[in-house]
Specification:
310 residues, Carbon-nitrogen hydrolase, globular, disordered N terminus, 16 strands, five-stranded mixed β-sheet, 32% helix, single chain, alpha/beta, hydrolase
Length: 310
């Protein structure tokens, strides 16, 4: 009798206050966003990444997110293509796999690398998910390429050396929640992030090598905007500093973790190029609370107004 009365009372409280469905979702899982300065030396870059893996393990993180082009940043488009290898032959990727297996840790790693393309003078810019056993379980190829040709200004044409991807990778399960994959310049195309949210993403990651000028103007703005647009965590691992002796290629840094309300939870400095991590808790109850309080996906207009759904 007492149990029945208590159960009915609980149901009335839930009904009265409309306690949303997010109760019971797992919460408070640590994520690490990495920051480093990759050069043309894969051996040096691998050493930097191994140090970040160990830092992440020591901090208790379950996932380490590494930047775009962690394996190398070359001095020219031709060198970018020349250094690329098949993933299964990449000494950089193999080194990460061996490190995870040797540590016998539960840490999983998301890392941006190059991949060669057979019979073509371009390579692929890809993002890999490597589990704690060293197995590659997910792979995404960058959709949007950074082509900028300014009058009397810089010329950066990623498409000269990189082949664009053709598919959105559906969000996949991880120790943090469902991960949506995107890379760097993809962040400027909100339809991509909206699609990932529609497909179920709790977290979207943008590993990047933002230029200093665009980083100063738009890095934080874009990251927080995508978090608010999609009501997901946004994790932005970053390249930082000067990548070549001539100083021709520099990256903004400021690796960040942003929550679904657009709050920056953690951020790396840009004071030097020392490999670093910033860490924050990923709380899926926060994801669900933000979405319950502001139900954007129940209010979206699609085909009837815009002619398409995301």
């Amino acid at each position: 009798m007492f149990r029945s009365t208590r159960l009915n009372l609980t149901r009335r409280i839930i009904s009265q206050y409309r306690i949303p469905h997010y109760i019971g979702r797992k919460r408070m899982t640590l994520a690490a966003a990495g920051q480093l300065c990759s050069t043309g030396s894969m051996a040096e870059n691998l050493a930097s990444v191994k140090s970040l893996i160990r830092k992440s393990v020591a901090a208790g993180a379950k996932v380490l997110f590494l930047p775009e082009a962690s394996d190398y940043i070359a001095r020219s488009p031709a060198e970018t293509v020349a250094l690329a290898r098949p993933i299964e032959q990449s000494e950089f990727v193999i080194g990460i796999q061996e490190e995870l297996k040797s540590l016998e840790t539960s840490l999983e790693v998301s890392v941006g690398v190059h991949e060669s393309v057979e019979n073509e003078d371009r390579c692929k810019n890809v993002l890999l998910w490597i589990n704690s056993r060293g197995e590659i379980t997910q792979r995404y190829q960058k959709l949007h390429l950074f082509d900028v040709n300014l009058k009397n200004g810089p010329i950066l044409m990623e498409s000269r050396s990189v082949q664009p991807g053709q598919d959105v990778l559906p969000p996949f399960d991880s120790p943090l929640g469902k991960i949506g994959y995107a890379i760097c310049y993809d962040i400027r195309f909100p339809e991509h992030s909206l699609r990932l949210r529609t497909l179920g993403a709790d977290i979207i990651t943008y590993p990047s090598a933002f230029t200093v000028r665009t980083g100063q103007a738009h890095w934080e703005l874009l990251g927080r905007s995508r978090a608010v647009d999609t009501q997901t965590y946004v994790i932005m691992a970053a390249q930082v500093g000067t990548h070549d002796p001539e100083g021709m290629r520099r990256s903004w840094g400021h690796a960040m973790i942003i929550d679904p309300w657009g709050t920056i939870l953690a951020q790396c400095p840009d004071t030097d190029s020392v490999p670093r991590i910033c860490i924050a808790d990923i709380d899926l109850e926060v994801v669900d609370k933000v979405r319950a309080d502001m139900p954007l996906w129940q209010q979206r207009r699609g085909v009837d107004v815009y002619g398409y759904n995301v």
